[in-house]
Specification:
Oligomer: heterodimer
Family (chain B): Belongs to the complex I subunit 4 family.
Strand order of the largest sheet of chain A: 1-2
Shape of chain A: globular
Order of helices and strands of chain B: HHEEHHHHHHHHHHHHHHHHHH
Pfam families (chain B): Proton_antipo_M (PF00361)
Distance between the termini of chain B: 33 Å
Protein name (chain B): Oxidoreductase
GO molecular function (chain B): NADH dehydrogenase (ubiquinone) activity; NADH dehydrogenase activity; ubiquinone binding
Number of helices of chain A: 20
Strand content of chain A: under 5%
Distance between the termini of chain A: 25 Å
Keywords (chain B): Membrane, Transmembrane, Transmembrane helix
Radius of gyration of chain A: 22 Å
Helix content of chain A: 55-70%
Order of helices and strands of chain A: HHEEHHHHHHHHHHHHHHHHHH
Radius of gyration of chain B: 21 Å
């Protein structure tokens, strides 16, 4: 038995950072509040270092409910790195706001919840972590106190509460059936329990998990939150809690779903199919890039379910899930960072971005091609591993469905990429592209698509910088994320070699 | 050395993009210099090549899934690499004339060159796939950024269609990986110990996935519908690279991956490929005959020419027949890949000249060009004759070997297939002569006065391609000496 508090050092760093940040923020004048961002950043960096140190030591279980294994280690690293990027992303938006401190602290607390979701081996801790990951996120969504934010927060909260109740019922049912809430004990005892009761309990439990990962049919909050919340917060809630919830689901699937008689693999495979298909179809004609990204995260959640379906079969599933999660996190944060940096929400607003800020356009292209799964970006390796894991687990049809969905997804990602590289001034919606440019003998009329009015993002909305301008910190995050996506893909061998 | 050849253009692309204040013409000059240096390195490689897998580099990349950075050349890939390097160089020379956004254009083509060279050199399935996929992205930007007409639509169709193929290919590769023991993506290892020896059903499905993926790229009838719009709306150099290099990725994949790694399945389903090949030959030729748009016409002759290659490779799987004949067919297929790259590249660059002058590809608007542009007409005539397989030019060497090989296999089906595809040559001859008749001879058309003769850089771009085609046509031994051992190896591998 291991009751060493130091085993939880990375989590303690996050908690300590949040508490210290809150206390410091209470005593700081408003113009000194950015210090809290530094405190949170340092806490995350410390947590990363502690996590790296912990990963090198032998694993085991701490406090009988917290598992120290590669799943936890990688989740810690992914969540903390993604949160660090989001803190940088949020600092531009939060600066000078009345509750600047609270924004950083809530981010850190929600991230802590995501880590614990993934690390725990006990359903009761899982429920607590679910709440810890959710409640700060509700508050962050409505942080700007504007109409879209409030609506999104309400929707998010109601969905979370509504789906949290069946989850609690599922936990209760499982406890009633087996007399325990730890995954390990459930794994031993579920085999001897009536199948119908187990199936009910698992479905009820899945409701809450699906809410966190944004899977069909619990996905309705994703587009509204992505559109209504401040963009930096949208980047956070579509990335970090998902990472934790996916690892939690994978852990549950491997530890006690597999022991039950219920055909959970088929259920999850069907959910995966529905999630990726619906996400893709809904993304097709979105003109708001945030909603487009939201539906894209839903479809990515569908692909991410592939290794979960394969949990416990073959040795590809765990590396596939973890690598894909890391790849997804950097890519998604990178894409949202571009949205924050440009401050534009409509697809038309991206016309000619390559001319105005080539670096940002390149980062966006890398992230979007990354989502498609173009090599050598990280998501390509993730998809490859996920497809292979599903096939290896005897679900080749699911890999075929996912491949077909990937082709469909190309369409809407290209809808965003094309205007970026089209010359034209977004200030004059009538002008771009259709006029003959000087020095262009090829004649560049493109009757392919009508041009949408290309105003700068919604003016009254926080989260965007001044129209036409580019926020420095956000642009930096976008570049880092895009570079990380390519590096992670090219150096995937090094990453994967550790632990497997 | 091989890695230097592959990544030199990419380094040059980075240089072109990062050097501040590099003008458009200077960027094109850097591009020409890099492409020329690369071709020189390839020539050195050719001279010092000693058989087997040459210039091999094998490094670990993703060891946990058995994928590595493994490159090398043999008698099948080296001719294609040389053809690729030459074609990119002439595209660079051709682009010396005014090109909009020349820096980005040069960087894009240089990166595309790295991708194409890397694909032909790859000896690892994952590496092959990386380059295969990136070629789609690169060509998408070429068409969408520098094309004309309905370019966005064509580019999107090209991307979606070929990406569908590439994902089918990826599934096939995953299948090969999961079927191998120990699991690996390495082509050499997979060729040594082909997977699914005892599971013919699974092998058939994997071949289906790989086959569909490569057939879309080739393109084989009925997966060819992306090709005409993509060619028509691409810029001339883009069309030349698309037809000359990218299409070969499909047929090269058949010979490099599908045949040696799934020999049993290939033998069992060889007839599918023979039929698809014959269908491509006849359908491509007949549809080309009906075209009034010059570029679409040449695009359909590509379908026809790739049909010969698929036919020959399919026939190589008919193990009941004579082994020597099958080797001849595969040699012909590889020669055809090289020859088609040179000749069709030249034809597309020449149509680019027409578009440059008259902004039209319509055969109806032209006539009597020979009077206003004699050199241009001469070049087009040589290219057209090479394309229809006139003796003395490279097309004849290739097609003769294919027909002799396929018919020489001796089974009744192979003889019928060979005989049917010979009629394809007749139709091609008819349609190319019709093209020459309508556009270049006879009365002047309304657009003819606009057609001035070729400029020096255009001549410098097209002439080397046709000259090489002539050399191969007259003295093919140096090329065949390179190809024949490789095709013998493929035939013995597929006969297992």
């Amino acid at each position: 038995m291991n009751d060493d508090p130091l085993a939880l050092l990375p989590e303690l760093f996050m908690l300590g950072g949040a508490v210290l940040g809150l206390l410091t923020g209470m005593f700081l004048p408003r113009h000194r509040q950015p210090i809290v961002a530094w405190i949170c950043g340092l806490a995350l960096t410390g947590g990363l270092a502690a996590g790296a140190f912990a990963a090198a030591r032998p694993g085991g279980t701490a406090f009988e409910s917290y598992v120290l294994d590669p799943l936890t280690h990688v989740t810690r690293a992914t969540v903390m790195l993604a949160t660090l990027l989001v803190v940088v992303l949020a600092s531009g938006w939060a600066r000078g706001r009345r509750r600047e401190t609270e924004a950083y602290v809530l981010l850190l607390l929600s991230a802590l919840g995501a880590v614990i979701l993934a690390g725990t081996g006990d359903l009761l801790v899982f429920v607590a972590a679910y709440l810890l990951a959710s409640i700060p996120a509700y508050a962050l969504t409505g942080f700007a106190k504007d109409a879209p934010g409030t609506e999104a927060a309400l929707k998010y909260y109601l969905m979370g509460a509504f789906l949290g109740v069946p989850m609690l019922a599922g936990v209760t049912l499982l406890y009633g059936l087996t007399g325990s809430t730890t995954y390990a004990a459930l794994g031993e005892r579920l085999a001897g329990v009536p199948g119908a009761a187990v199936a009910c309990a698992l479905v009820a439990l899945l409701a809450g998990v699906l809410f966190k990962i944004g899977g069909v049919p619990a996905h309705f909050w994703v587009p509204d939150v992505a559109e209504g919340a401040p963009a930096a917060v949208a980047a956070f809630v579509t990335t970090v809690p998902k990472v934790g919830a996916f690892v939690a689901l994978f852990r549950m699937a491997g530890e006690f779903f597999a022991a039950s008689a219920a055909d959970w693999r088929l259920l999850l495979a069907l959910i995966a199919t529905a999630t990726m298909t619906l996400g893709n179809l809904a993304a097709f004609f979105q003109d708001n890039v945030r909603r487009l990204l939201a539906y894209s995260t839903i479809s990515q959640a569908g692909y991410l379910l592939l290794p979960v379906v394969a949990a416990g079969r073959g040795d590809l599933a765990a590396p596939a899930l973890l690598f894909y999660l890391g790849a997804y996190a950097v890519t998604n944060v990178g894409a949202f960072a571009v949205v924050v940096a440009t401050g534009r929400d409509s697809l038309g607003g991206y016309t000619g971005l390559a001319r105005r800020s080539p670096g940002l356009a390149a980062s966006l292209a890398v992230c979007l091609f990354g989502f498609i799964g173009t090599p050598p970006t990280a998501v390509f390796v993730g998809k490859l591993l996920a497809f292979a894991a599903a096939w290896d687990a005897g679900q080749a049809w699911l890999a075929v469905v996912a491949a077909a969905n990937t082709v469909a997804s190309v369409f809407y990602y290209l809808r965003w990429i094309v205007p970026v590289f089209r010359p034209g001034d977004p200030g004059n919606p009538g002008n771009p592209g259709n006029l003959e440019r000087p020095g262009d003998p090829e004649g560049s009329g493109d009757p392919g698509r009508p041009h949408r009015a290309a105003g700068p993002g919604d003016p009254g909305r926080p989260g965007g910088s001044a129209a036409g301008g580019v926020s420095r910190g956000a642009a930096w995050v976008a570049h880092v994320a895009a570079a990380a996506s390519v590096l992670l893909g090219v150096a995937s061998g090094l990453v994967l070699a550790r632990g497997w | 050395m091989l890695s230097a050849v592959i990544f030199l253009p990419l380094a040059a692309a980075a240089g072109v993009l990062l050097l501040p204040r590099l003008g458009g013409r200077a960027a094109t000059r850097v591009w020409i210099a890099a492409a020329a240096a690369d071709l020189l390195l390839v020539a050195v490689m050719w001279v010092r090549y000693e058989g087997g897998i040459g210039y091999e580099t094998r490094m670990r990349w993703i060891p946990s899934v058995g994928a590595g950075y493994h490159v090398g050349v043999d008698g099948m890939s080296l001719p294609l690499i040389a053809m690729t390097a030459l074609l990119f160089l002439v595209c660079a020379i051709y682009s010396l004339r005014e090109t909009p956004r020349a820096r980005a254009y040069a960087a894009l083509f240089l990166s595309l060159q790295t991708v194409c060279l890397g694909l032909f050199a790859a000896l690892d399935l994952l590496l092959f796939f990386v380059f295969f996929d990136l070629s789609i992205v690169g060509m998408y930007f070429v068409i969408a950024g520098w094309g004309h007409g309905d370019r966005l639509r064509s580019a999107l169709k090209f991307f979606l269609y070929t990406f569908l193929g590439s994902l089918a290919l990826l599934l096939g590769f995953i299948g090969l990986y999961l079927g191998s023991d120990p699991r690996t993506f390495d082509m050499v290892d997979l060729t040594h110990a082909p997977p699914f020896g005892d599971a013919p059903g699974t092998a058939g499905l994997v071949l289906l996935a790989v086959g569909v993926g490569l057939a879309v790229k080739t393109p084989t009838v009925p997966f060819h519908t992306w090709l005409p719009p993509a060619h028509t709306d691409a810029p001339a150099a883009g069309s030349a690279v698309l037809a000359g290099v990218l299409l070969k990725m499909g047929t090269y994949g058949f010979a490099r991956i599908a045949m040696p790694m799934l020999p049993g399945a290939w033998q069992r389903h060889a007839w599918v490929f023979v039929v698809a090949g014959v269908a491509g030959v006849l359908y491509g030729a007949l549809v080309a005959l009906a075209q009034n748009d010059l570029k679409r016409l040449i695009a359909y002759t590509s379908v026809n020419h790739m049909g010969y290659v698929v036919l020959a490779l399919g026939a190589a799987g008919l193990v009941a027949g004579d082994a020597r004949a099958r080797e001849l067919a595969v040699s012909g297929a590889v020669t055809q890949m090289v020859s088609h790259g040179l000749v069709t590249g030249a034809l597309f660059l020449l149509t680019g000249v027409l578009w440059d002058r008259a902004r039209s590809y319509g055969l109806g608007g032209f006539g009597g060009i020979a009077a206003t542009a004699p050199i241009f007409t001469g070049l087009t005539a040589v290219a057209a004759f090479a394309s229809l397989g006139l003796p003395g030019l490279s097309g004849f060497i290739a097609e003769f070997q294919i027909f002799a090989g396929v018919i020489g296999i001796g089974t009744p089906g192979a003889v019928v297939a060979g005989a049917l595809s010979v009629t394809g040559v007749l139709i091609t001859a008819a349609l190319l002569l019709r093209m020459l008749h309508r556009a270049y001879l006879g009365r002047p058309g309304e657009l003819t006065p606009r057609v001035t003769d070729v400029r020096p850089e255009e001549l410098a771009a097209v002439a080397p391609l046709l000259l090489l085609s002539l050399i191969i046509g007259i003295a093919p031994r140096w090329l065949l000496d390179m190809i024949e051992p490789a095709s013998a190896a493929v035939v013995s591998l597929v006969g297992r």
